[in-house]
Give the backbone structure.
Amino acid sequence: MGTPSRKTSNGACLPALSGDLYALFFTELARTCNVTASAATVGVSRQHVHHKRRTNKEFAKRWEDAMQQATDVLEAEARKRAMDGYQRPVYQRGELVGYEPCYSDALMITLLKAHRPEKFRDKGFDLPPGSEIVISMKSGKDDGDKDAGMVDVTPGAPEKIESITD
């Protein structure tokens, strides 16, 4: 006789699965990086495995390991397409005449940003070290006073807040 089903906090019934089925779930998760498909492989819903992940530390650790494995495979394939490229078919008048190498600059940029963010990240709004951002909000009512309703949340901020919309 199998292990009896348990109930979640909302009364839903959790099917009892063997360790072998959970091992198959993790194998599929590492292969596909897809929770729904991996859960379906062992005959449970994604909600079931998410609940198990939230309530079982060992399950959560194995989940994280499987997702890391899947992500490593994706990253390796992205690197391969960026560096080695792939063969794209070339057609003339509807007929295959050969293949040409195709590389992904977008994947190359993404990998560089991930592995060397200090050098390749998007250059956006950078503040010098020690700078503060003044956050202010303006209420929706317009009573003629352009500064009415503005709240400065920075300690030691100037008395008057300049409007950036004028």
Summary: The chain has a mean pLDDT of 79. The longest strand covers residues 95-102. Helices lie at 19-32, 35-41, 46-55, 57-83, 105-115, 117-120. Residues 23 and 62 are 9 Å apart (CA to CA).
